[in-house]
Amino acid sequence: MVADINIKWTIWPIGLWAKGEKYKVIGRLTLEDFLRAIDASLPFFMTLGWSVERVQKVLNAARDEIKDEKILLYQHVFVTPGNLRVCSQISHS
Fold first, then answer.
1. Angle between helices 52-67 and 21-40 (to 10 degrees)
2. What letters, b where the CB count within 10 A reaches 16 and e where it falls short, cover 52-79?
3. Which residues, 6 or more positions from 5, have their beta carbon under 8 angstroms from its beta carbon?
4. Span 71-91, mean pLDDT?
5. Taking the model in full, what pTM does it have?
């Protein structure tokens, strides 16, 4: 089995401010993911002993900043496209 794997670093916009249709779609989807992640972080903050009111205040501020189109946020990501080939003959020397 042989695999040709390449690693490509890129950046994705977070939000609706991006230029170009491709980056607008990526930015919208990434924004949705980040907003879901903020909501999912509530139990983590509760384990720190924070009150529900304090956690909600911090999470609301984070949501507002992420949605603010004056702040250009990016996420660094890497993709690993690969090609997996299965060798039909194995040489035993």
1. 170
2. eeebeeebeeeeeebeeeeeebeeeeee
3. 80, 81, 82, 83
4. 76
5. 0.69
